[in-house]
Amino acid sequence: MPFPFVRTSSALLAFPLILAACGSDGGPVGENANAPPASGDPTVAALAPGEAQPVQFEASDGVTVHGAWYPAKEPAATILLFHQAGANKAEYATIAPMLAKAGYNALAIDQRSGGDMFGGTNETVAGIGGSAPDYEAALADMDAALAWARTKGEPVIVWGSSYSAALAFLLAAQHPGEIAALLTFSPGEYLKDKQAVRQAASKVSIPIFTMAADGKEANAAMAILSAVPRETNEPVVPQHDAHGSSTLIAAENPKGAEANRAEVMAFLKQVTQ
User: Fold this and answer.
1) What global pTM score does this model have?
2) 230: Cα within 13 Å, side-chain hemisphere
3) How many degrees, rounded to 5, is the angle at CA 175 between CA 174 and CA 179?
């Protein structure tokens, strides 16, 4: 299916909403892929594209955030990969190498609200003795990841899955001019304030790519996108999909992952040219 875009007077901005098979915010179980323990210097020029190095850095409140860094040989951008509820950086074990090989640095982190889904361990959660009860707490980890990524010198693109897709709008609203584009997979009003995401979206004017499950999830995503101060596209409905970023994982979405990855890569190419 062709990838639609909306042209404005100043720039080419994309707002596709891709409807998918439904899943809960707790998310589906993903592929088994354990990320290595986090430690060491995040400078990884010697790594091959698609190969990861463990990294760690501190959030503003002193929490140590663990992640996996996938450098590209000649990066067009740095993409921050944030996981869904109950999960960890292993949600991106097959996605991040694809991005690095395509020419995008990728940093997948363990947010303090998460768990052991997708066959991985959330090392940030382990470090604080348990998952944070509120999704909003993870915004500090995302903020720290953004600061870390900006030191790399490339444009930064933020990618969120489920609750982190909601937080991605808050992050972009709080950092105007620091984020080049958003990719949000199954966003919704998952926070305590059920208007917080929509209110943040009203302050975001960068290119946005959204995938969401059919039905209530799609309606929730459209409600958020309708607040963005730009024209949005009509929904594009793929034949097969899954919740959050797992829509791009072949083990979770064997009939649709390849096509959905193609949609994502088309968007990334468009916003980084």
Assistant:
1) 0.84
2) 21
3) 135
